[in-house]
């Protein structure tokens, strides 16, 4: 066979290779990936602090509410926005009053007062002598603040609710009372005779206040009220008059002038000479003993309950400063209690470096910021 014949008998195979360009993702996913990752990292880092701020706000609001209700025996335990109250109540009425106070507790925010507590649980240790009353209504709470009267609580039917609303609207008189916020609940269940009469007593008293809270809980009517001194005696007389149902509870009438005089005296004392502490400690320096004696006398002359506020400069970590300021406020509270001020009148709160009055860039400014202030707890707080 010739070379040509052999070559003709062969099959010719051709392999073609086609190069494909790899598909590329558009620019956006590559650009967004790092941004999303960074955002998640920031969220992961910030969330524990945000959660801590919420818890501290809820705890502070609960402590102040308990102090305002005279429930110094109750201890709040915080988890998120849930509060668990512990302690041994002197009576079932006192237990219910403490629960109601924390439910209504408010904290200051950039948008105004808000309720940081979403749920309140009862973990009280009750003495055998304390019996839970049966078939009692949950009661109501009427709060006047910043010209708004907020009505919360139980009404048996629409007729009673309308009667209460009518009485409230009849008292509208700007700027003291501008509007009514209705948050009443209709139970559609019969309530004890006299319940409506006591609710109308609540409207009659609280609408005479500049700021006030009237409540009926566990068969007990109570009111806290801040108003001009000239009107105090009249409101006290109305509040203490016999009622158709239950009994009279706490009646705390604070003359506006007395509140201003109290805070002015305390401010003058504490700005002229600071309560001194050992460095980075809550131990009060012995040199402040005479000043604490003077503060005690001023506090005794004050109306209502008082909040001892601790402040620091901005040196160090925020959480460390908050804890130090809280510990120092509690140390002052204990010092005043040891000097005879009732514990139920005092509450301690630490604000860390969040409320400076001087520059944290100078030694003098930082010294001004490390301070204790004492204020009357206002009815609407």
TrEMBL record:
One of its GO terms (cellular component) is cell outer membrane. Keywords: Cell outer membrane, Membrane. Coiled coil: none annotated. It comes from the Bacteria. It is found in: Cell outer membrane. Its main location: membrane. This is Uncharacterized protein. It comes from Hyphomonas pacifica.
């Amino acid at each position: 066979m010739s070379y040509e014949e052999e070559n003709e008998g062969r099959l010719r195979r051709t392999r073609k290779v086609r190069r494909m360009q790899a598909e590329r993702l558009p620019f956006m996913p590559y650009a967004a990936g790092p941004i999303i990752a960074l955002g998640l990292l920031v969220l992961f880092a910030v969330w524990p602090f945000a959660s801590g701020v919420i818890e501290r706000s809820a705890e502070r609001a609960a402590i102040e509410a308990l102090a305002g209700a005279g429930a110094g025996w109750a201890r709040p335990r915080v988890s998120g926005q849930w509060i668990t109250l512990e302690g041994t109540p002197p009576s079932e009425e006192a237990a219910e009053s403490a629960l109601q106070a924390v439910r209504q507790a408010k904290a200051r925010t950039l948008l105004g007062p808000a309720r940081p507590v979403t749920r309140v649980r009862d973990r009280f240790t009750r003495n055998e002598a304390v019996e839970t009353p049966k078939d009692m209504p949950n009661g109501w709470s009427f709060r006047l603040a910043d010209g708004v009267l907020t009505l919360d609580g139980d009404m048996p039917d629409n007729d009673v609710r309308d009667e209460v609303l009518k009485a409230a609207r009849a008292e509208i008189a700007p700027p003291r009372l501008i509007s009514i916020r209705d948050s009443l609940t209709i139970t559609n269940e019969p309530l004890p005779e006299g319940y409506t009469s006591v609710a109308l007593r609540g409207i009659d008293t609280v609408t005479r206040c500049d700021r006030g809270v009237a409540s009926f809980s566990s068969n007990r009517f109570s009111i806290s009220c801040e108003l001009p001194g000239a009107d105090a005696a009249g409101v006290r007389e109305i509040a203490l008059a016999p009622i158709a149902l239950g009994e009279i509870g706490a009646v705390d009438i604070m003359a506006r002038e007395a509140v201003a005089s109290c805070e002015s005296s305390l401010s003058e004392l504490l700005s002229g000479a600071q309560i001194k502490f050992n460095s980075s400690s809550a131990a009060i320096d012995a040199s402040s003993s005479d000043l604490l004696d003077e503060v005690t006398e001023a506090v005794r002359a004050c109306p209502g309950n008082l909040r001892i506020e601790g402040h620091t400069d901005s040196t160090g970590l925020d959480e460390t400063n908050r804890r130090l300021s809280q510990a120092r406020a509690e140390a002052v509270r204990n010092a005043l209690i040891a000097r005879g001020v009732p514990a139920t009148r005092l509450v301690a709160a630490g604000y860390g470096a969040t409320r400076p009055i001087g520059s944290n860039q100078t030694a003098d400014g930082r010294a001004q910021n490390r301070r204790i202030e004492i204020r009357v707890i206002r009815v609407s707080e």
